[in-house]
Structures are given as C-alpha cells and as structure tokens.
Design a protein that fits this description.
12 strands, 60s Ribosomal Protein L30, Chain: A, alpha/beta, single chain
C-alpha cells in the first residue's frame, strides 16, 4: 500500500507497532525542510531501520506516486498488516479491566465514514472491526487518509455474512450484540430501543453494529433485531443515540463514534 503526507508517513514510522511495516520512503527534492528534519530525528531515535529504503525523488515522481491532487512531498510504501482470528481474540489495545468491544460495519460504503470509524476504534480501544458485505475496503486510499494510522492498528476482517460474523464473535466469547437504530412500536410510537448511555458496555464482551449510510441495517440484521428487553441468545438489541430538535438521524461515523466514546467513558470511570 502507498501512503502519503508527512503525518501519515511519520506517524507510521515512529509507532513501534507499525515501524517494521515501512519498506520505502520517497522524499521530494523540494520537500519542506522541517519534514526532512523530523524524519531524520525519528530515524535517529528508532532502534533499527535496516530494511527501510529512503530516497530523494523529483516532484514529478512524487506526483506520479500520489493519489491526491496536491502531493505533500513525501510518500511511502507500506506492507499491509495481516489479521486473523487470533488478532480478534487478543488485541494490543486492550486495557486492564476493559471489557472487549467489537465493531461491525454493515454495508458502510463511504470510505470517509469507514476511515473515521477505524480512527475512533483505535482511540477507544476497540478489539477488532468486522466488515459485512457492502462495506468499503479499509485499504481504500480515502479510507486510509480518514483513518490516519488507524487502519494499521486495529484488526479488521471482512466476512461473507452476518452468520459468519456471529460465529466468530461466539469464538471470542461475545455474549451481547447491539445495533445502532431507533426501534419504535408501530402502533403506540413508544421507543423500544435503549439509549446508548443506558447500556453497561463494560459488564461483558459486546459487539456494536453500524448500518449503511443510505439504507441503514441490512435485512439479515433486522430479522434478528429486538427490543432492549429481549434476552434471546440470537437476538440483536437495538440501541440509539437520543437527540433533540428536528434532526432524525446522524451520520454513520458520528453515530458510531458517539457510542464508542460512551463505551470508553464507562470503563475509564471504573
């Protein structure tokens, strides 16, 4: 994968978890001197970078390597991390007394939203992210730019169906699954879903599903959706972010991030 821009390249280089993934860095001959100095300082502070090639290149070469309209003078070739079920079960992000939380993207197709959710996942210590069919590839260039280094830090796995994802969650001892959606009684209008802050996110391993931007949750997920009072082992409990005013819904990335940070707030308090 090619990544570009000083923040992405330098952050990946100085992070111990991603440093060894860096294979080649190209610096433009007209790159800002401060970027060169920061790069040299990081290399000086890093124990080993024998497998890393660093070369100067003309602005034309940098532009040819870049996906953005206005290149920032530095690009890098980075090895993609390899994730597995073992990565899901044991995350380096996990903190003491923190109940694992898994994020599931159900057809989230916008790369900006996917990247933002990955970035928020790293920020709060999500164990792993599962992508159901219809979700954007996490290695989409725009998704990578939105996630910053998040794409390389939180385990992500694509699965073929919800049933496959559910089996993987069971292997990870996840007992509760929530889906972000407002659930109402069609006759009375009574809200049946729980507010996101009324869920005890740290009581046991859980999973949170975020639906697509345009159509919401897939039919497969909706068929298993029940109210907060339903404790069936196969049910998915509905959870929503309460809002005031006339706005009916939130952007998928914002909704997911709000719930994720409530999860972090609760385990931080404990």
């Amino acid at each position: 994968m090619i990544v570009e821009g000083p923040r992405m390249v330098l952050d990946l280089l100085k992070n111990p978890a991603t440093h060894t993934l860096m294979k080649q860095i190209l610096l433009s001959t007209d790159v800002d001197e401060n970027i060169q100095q920061e790069l040299h300082q990081i290399l000086k502070d890093t124990a080993s970078h024998d497998n890393l090639s660093i070369q100067m290149a003309t602005p034309q070469v940098i532009k040819a390597c870049s996906d953005t309209v206005t290149p920032q003078g530095i690009v890098a070739r980075v090895q993609l991390p390899t994730w597995s079920m073992d990565s899901m079960a044991s995350s380096p992000q996990q903190q003491p007394k923190q109940a694992p939380l898994y994020l599931i993207l159900d057809g989230v197709s916008d790369p900006g939203n996917v990247g933002t959710l990955l970035r928020s996942s790293v920020a709060v210590g999500v164990q792993a992210v599962l992508l159901l069919p219809g979700s954007c590839d996490v290695w989409n260039p725009k998704a990578i730019r939105s996630a910053m280094v998040g794409s390389f830090l939180v385990p992500t796995l694509s699965v073929g169906s919800w049933s496959e994802a559910r089996d993987m969650l069971r292997e990870c001892k996840v007992g509760r699954v929530f889906a972000a959606t407002m659930l109402e009684d069609q006759q009375t209008g009574q809200v049946l879903s729980a507010a996101h802050y009324d869920i005890d996110w740290n009581s046991e391993p859980s999973a949170l599903i975020i639906g697509s931007e345009g159509t919401g949750l897939s039919q497969e997920i909706r068929q298993s959706l029940h109210s907060d009072s339903d404790s069936s082992s196969n049910s998915i409990r509905a959870v929503h972010v309460p809002m005031e005013g006339t706005i009916e819904s939130l952007n998928a990335a914002i909704c997911g991030s709000v719930i994720l940070f409530e999860y972090m707030r609760q385990w931080k308090q404990q």
